[in-house]
Amino acid sequence: MSGTGTDTTGRRGTLTGLLGALRGSTTAWVGLALVAAHLLVALLAPLVAPHSPVENDPANALAGPGWAHWAGTDQYGRDVLSRVLHGGRYALMVSFGATVLAVALGTVIGCVVALRGGWLDNLVMRVMDAVLSIPPVLALLVVVTVLGAGPLVIVLAVSLVYTPAVTRVVRAAAQGVAPSDYVTAARVRGERTTSILFREVLPNIVDVVCVEFAMRASWVILLISSLSFLGFGANPPTPDWGLMVAENRTAITVVPMASLAPIIALATLVIGLNLAADGLSKAWGVDRVRKGRA
Amino acid sequence: MTEREATGGKPVVEITGLTVSYRSAGRDVVVANEVDLAVRANETVAVVGESGSGKSTVAGTVLGHLRHGSRLAGGRVLVDGQDVFALPPRQLRALRGGTVAMVAQNAGQALTPSMRVGRQIAEALRGRGLDRRALDAAVVELLDQVRLPNPAELARRYPHQLSGGQQQRVAIAMAVAARPRALVLDEPTTGLDVVTQGGILRLLDTLSSELGLATVLVSHDLGVVASMADRVLVMRRGEVVEEADTERLFADPRHPYTRTLLASVPRITDGGLVEVGEDGGRTVRRREPVADAPPVVSLRDVRIGYGRRRRTRRAHAEPRPAVDGVSLELRRGEVLALVGESGSGKTTLAWSLAGLRPPSEGEMRYTDHGRSDDLAQPAARRATDLRRRVQLVFQNADTALNPRRRVAEAVRRPLRMFGLARGRRELDERTRGLVADVHLDPALTERLPAQLSGGQRQRVGIARALAGEPDVVIADEITTALDVSVQASILALLDDLRARRRLACLFISHDLAVVRGIADRVVVLRHGVVVEEGPTEAVFAGPNHPYTSTLLAAALEPDPTSARRRAENRDAPPVQWADDAADGAVWEELGAGHRIRRWREVGKEDR
């Protein structure tokens, strides 16, 4: 009983940890289920959507919910339900790419600066602070105006904007691991930084990285949808939630569903991601607030 | 405390038939089984046992505390006539604040880091209804009572500005603030060095007799128990195996477990490592004299500062280096003990040798069969072959192993890294060999560190260090975190390996009894300066540098009679001394390599 407390959780891989977290936490379960449902819908949209998302039908424009169109139609007579079902594809694809890139970059940079410390740490973090101080939407608008609104440009720009935040969180987590004796042992052995990073540090902060991924994804989706809403993301007539809200907000009094449906879809996805992040962080004991969320 | 008579009458703390269990994987695991314990006012009862014996659980129940997930399966705990587990929350809080208090093991963690210590103590006094000024006065009085110097100024400090011993004194002040009737001490001095430990124990002893406390002392250190307790409960796996008066227990342990436990404790009078038989008999292993071998590692005037030298506005404000001009030699096949209080620079020196913090001045060399390498280089710049030859074993085996890597991987990594084995078969074979060398069950190699016991983890740590086939092993307090019986087996292992592989071992420890058992030579370090060095027997026989004498006097023996003798001598003031080393006349040679740094006695007014 005396002496040092020991962790008796035993072997806990990422996958088993995820399953354990799912069993233990309703929050995580609900969140992941929502996200999974959205992914499934986005994948299967061409199969399940009752109409084409881009087919105009002026005769049936601005129709309310009915048997033919469950969620009604918009000003061009396009089926709202079909558009909502398709509308997540662009946002999910771009967000996924941007989040993976941002988290990967942030993780590597955060770990390296935590391990090296000294002037490198100071330099990199001040640069990150400078990037953090720029409002994301503003930065993206500039990038998109200059380089165009192609998906690749957006992915790169969004990941650049979010990398500093991820770096901060991961650096804090890695700093907790860096002074451990097993890292010291690796240094004494003369291991290279990459080797220490992938063998000693990363496996011990993988939970922080996963939670960071889930949380960051919801922010990225919101940002990308905001861009679409402002007209800098998906181009009409591509079905996209942000774009749909922008197109239909003038007719919100006539066909509220045309604006509400994409909002509901976006909200459930973001809430799902947030719930998953919260549930996972609780189940894994990752304290986001303490770890200096940026 | 031994001379004090326990007053008769009703016990303040009375535990009867206490059974605590928790559910794990669908079945009940008993942590404490039918434990009985009674403590009267003015009495100290010690609960001793190794990790997992349930001693802390029992101590916690006195405050009505159960670890998360545990439950009371039977029995009751009466404190001052109240059944703590039947009390409503409000009264339980009143009981915890007023009737029974606790001093936890790690004061650094028990104090709130963001609050001045004075305010924290004031919180403990809240129930008294004092106004601001009276409160401040009470805080100062309490700090004075725990013998802290300059209490008014100290009350305004934050916990991190205090030393470990001072933090523990503040924690004690908080505990006695509400004038409790019972005090629970959970390993109150573990983690403190011997000199500080002596001070804290003396304070606790005086306080509990001044305040007439009923004290429950939880400890794994039998030296502490011998000097503090009136009665002892020995626990093992949740059961009380023996209960007796301190004198009787140490003179004539009846239960075989108690006998083994007592026998495993290294004593400062042992001339070598102790081997404990099945029946608890002790045989002292003779130390083989080390042939006069050439040095493998030699240090000359090594100085190691804190961090990089910064240009400060005040150029003269250069801090004293952690290691200040140390010269020593480590020979092949010998164990050289580095002894000193915390802050004496032992670990800094070890880390520097391992290449983690290059010295700012001086020379550190590795020599072997004509080759000579510079150890002043950081590990990253040393040649692979040199890195392999100098290896470090860590104090805390819990953090020394990557929690996500299996035992076999931890041992295999240096093998592959240093190119000592090629191919899967050879790697596996070598790994198995190393695991067998440290007497670890081969079945454990597929486990993660969290699934091993502390002793097993330390064996893995040693196996990992040995994988590089080193010539020099630096062992930094490797047995400090272990139970005594495990400690004995790890020390024996180290001794065997040293003999078999002709290792040169730098053994860092603050436990003089352990040092006496394993070391061939001893170097005493104080504030980064070597004050004495010599063969173990010579150093322990004396004469000594006054600092060494202080260390020796503070070492606690598992023997109540020697503890009493010390208690009688404790009022004799320690020798006041000042350093008297001058250029060309630093050492006083006593022959056979035993030498003492020059010092002179000074009167109080000189200082």
From TrEMBL, chain A:
Topology in the lipid bilayer: Multi-pass membrane protein
Protein name: Peptide/nickel transport system permease protein
Keyword set includes Membrane: yes
Lineage: Bacteria, Bacillati, Actinomycetota, Actinomycetes, Pseudonocardiales
Family annotation (CDD domains): TM_PBP2
Family: Belongs to the binding-protein-dependent transport system permease family.
Subcellular location: Cell membrane
Chief location of this protein within or outside the cell: membrane
ABC transmembrane type-1 domain span: 88-275
Transmembrane segments: 28-49, 90-117, 137-162, 217-234, 254-276
Top-rank taxon: Bacteria
Organism: Actinoalloteichus caeruleus DSM 43889
Transport is among the record's keywords: yes
Annotated keywords: Cell membrane, Membrane, Transmembrane, Transmembrane helix, Transport
Pfam families hit by this protein: BPD_transp_1 (PF00528), OppC_N (PF12911)
UniProtKB/TrEMBL annotation, chain B:
GO molecular function, a single term: ATP binding
Domain named ABC transporter: residues: 13-262, 297-552
UniProt cross-references to InterPro entries, sorted A to Z: AAA+_ATPase (IPR003593), ABC_transp_ATP-bind (IPR050319), ABC_transporter-like_ATP-bd (IPR003439), ABC_transporter-like_CS (IPR017871), Oligopep_ABC_C (IPR013563), P-loop_NTPase (IPR027417)
This protein's UniProt keywords: ATP-binding, Nucleotide-binding, Transport
Residues covered by region (Disordered): 559-580
Keyword ATP-binding recorded: yes
PROSITE patterns noted in UniProt: ABC_TRANSPORTER_1 (PS00211), ABC_TRANSPORTER_2 (PS50893)
Superkingdom to which the source organism belongs: Bacteria
CDD domains from the UniProt entry: ABC_NikE_OppD_transporters (cd03257)
Record flagged with keyword Secreted: no
Family to which this protein belongs: Belongs to the ABC transporter superfamily.
Entry protein name: Peptide/nickel transport system ATP-binding protein
